């Protein structure tokens, strides 16, 4: 009975140490993601780098200097 109890305790300790390792890995991943997010947000603050990083300006047509003629329709 005593051997069984010792084995259970050692298995529980191994499980706890495994969970602590997984927790450390998850915390590191979250920290790296936060640093990358903060860095990209800082890059988006500078207007000179937005046109190279963001494609939304191409969809909106902000980059091109072509001006279309406006047709007015009176009802």
TrEMBL record:
Top-rank taxon, per record: Bacteria
InterPro entries linked: DUF5359
Residue ranges of the TM segments: 25-45
Entry keyword Membrane: yes
Pfam families assigned: DUF5359 (PF17313)
UniProtKB keywords: Membrane, Transmembrane, Transmembrane helix
Protein name: YpfB family protein
